[in-house]
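Hey, can you fold this one?
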Amino acid sequence: MQNESIEDIPQPASDSYSAGGRVQIYTGSDDPDSRYHGVVCVIVDVLTDGLGTETRRATDGYSYILQDVETDEELLISFRHQDLVPVKSAQ
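Sure. Predicted structure:
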């Protein structure tokens, strides 16, 4: 298995995502929710809390309720902004 360089690792959007947007879950293999890694979802709801104020990174205050695009099932857990990367729309 080849090592990914930092340039190969997808990055979260610099701004918050919106309901209806498409994202892909991107977690590390040691993350407890790694079974969702690579799943493409639609954002169902956007939640906010005070974490962004504490960390001084506005996007840290966002988490998202997601629906799997393949199964149409809403995921049982929400994901933080840093665990999601934008999905480029098909052209």
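Helices lie at 51-55. Let me know if you want another pass with a different chain boundary.
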